[in-house]
Amino acid sequence: MFKRILIANRGEIAQRIIRTCREMGIETVAVYSQADADALYLRQADETICIGAPPGARSYLNIPSIISAAEIADVEAIHPGYGFLSENSHFAEVCNSCNITFIGPSPESIEAVGNKANARALAKKAGVPIVPGSDGPVPDEAVALRTAKRLGYPVMIKAAAGGGGRGMRIARNDPSLVSGFHAAKSEAEAAFGDGTVYLEKYIENPRHVEFQILGDQHGELIHLFERDCSIQRRHQKLVEESPSPLMTPELREAMGAAAIRVAKAAGYHNAGTVEFLVDKHLNFYFIEVNARIQVEHSVTELVTGLDLIEQQIRMAAGEPLSLRQDQVEQRGHAIEVRINAEDPDRDFKPSPGRIEMFVPPGGPGVRLDSHAYSGYRIPPNYDSMIGKLMAHRPTREHAIRCLSRALGEFIIEGPKTTIPLLIKVLDHPEFRSGDHDTGFVARHFGVTPAKVPIKEAR
């Protein structure tokens, strides 16, 4: 087992990794940008190293700086968290060449699934249903128009690299396809350094369901059941829950088996997520693989009782999986909401700045993963997430009531937050019924598709 791990990330996920490492007896080295000099997780790490200026390109995306810090601190492994360099195959290769273990999948697996167009081809070859779309990347608008005519409108233009809703546009006719094609390419180039896009048939108001997978370096792969992520704003998740209210035993078995087939086709090991869309007839379609731990991994932790960061570390150290598929159980119901420093009444405008008062909720069934505190200044340079609030109770209805109560207790003074919107979402009859889809927020809260602002990778 590793003795020292460097965490190449910030905020909530850096703190989350430190907590598990401390329980495992592993020393941690936390890197930080100048904007994060007062971050809470720095007080919890065994060693801290400043790696650069606030812009991500000069700090959390600066591979030479991170590797230098790892060598100075004499670590054996690097955990990339989520976002930033977590799905960068070149970074994984550099770690390996420096004899530093990358806590994640192999560079080859990241490469195989990191490009969404290539991942579609991989899934199709593995016999997993995919959304009808282009045969690989679309090089120009002429090919895009021909492809859209073949598929039939509406279509979705999607960046082959990256995620988080960036580089995505819906087109319902030729003019919107042409404008959306160039806008998506420009946005993807700015966000990911790769303007490659492809086309898919747009499925109106589907459910978004993903399966958590774990794989060791000895060829064993299991899934940890599903998370429903259908409550979204501009393709960015707001609420996640497990089990999915949509799920039947037959659908769960079929989707879980499909997730494993995709992962095996990619030679995958460590933690990852296979994402699907499910239509109103319960037909499911593969959309992508996230080759990393995800923000919403904690929902799966609550219903399975597993520490997924610990699982990642143990698998990266070469240990075999400690359980079989038939030993994984879902216990109760867990729901998570992402609390962002944004103003829902002003088109979700980011609201960075000083938190004057931070009083977290508590009580039975409540979990909060957050790096914020009273007096903390939210920097404008990164993702606006303040934390993740979760409830785990025996039933879905109980979990909703518990989470609503906890949101009502939460005090964050200073920045605007998404808490008022989240309370309304949880209280809405359609959400409470479980019969909702990815169009829920736009329908009920007036959030219409628009350009997603370019931010840092996390």
Describe this structure in words.
The protein is an alpha+beta fold and 458 residues long. It folds into 3 domains: 100 residues, Rossmann fold (3-Layer(aba) Sandwich); 70 residues, Dna Ligase, domain 1; 239 residues, D-amino Acid Aminotransferase, Chain A, domain 1 (2-Layer Sandwich). 34% of the residues lie in helices and 26% in strands. It contains 15 helices and 22 strands. The protein has an 8-stranded antiparallel sheet. A 5-stranded parallel sheet has the order 3-2-1-4-5, sandwiched between helices. Strands 7-6-8 form a 3-stranded antiparallel sheet, covered by helices on one side. Strand 4, helix 4 and strand 5 form a beta-alpha-beta unit. The chain is globular.
The largest sheet, given as strand count, sense and whether it forms a barrel, is: 8 strands, antiparallel
Measured between the Cα atoms of the first and last residue, the distance is 29 Å
Shape: globular
Could you please say which CATH topology of the largest domain applies here? Answer: D-amino Acid Aminotransferase, Chain A, domain 1
Strand order of the largest sheet: 13-12-9-10-11-14-21-19
Helical element count? Answer: 15
Averaging pLDDT over every residue, what do you get? 94
Q: Roughly what percent helix?
A: 25-40%
* Integer count of domains: 3
Helix/strand-derived class? alpha+beta
CATH class of the largest domain, please? Alpha Beta
Question: Could you name the CATH homologous superfamily of the largest domain?
Answer: ATP-grasp fold, B domain
Oligomeric form of this entry? Answer: single chain
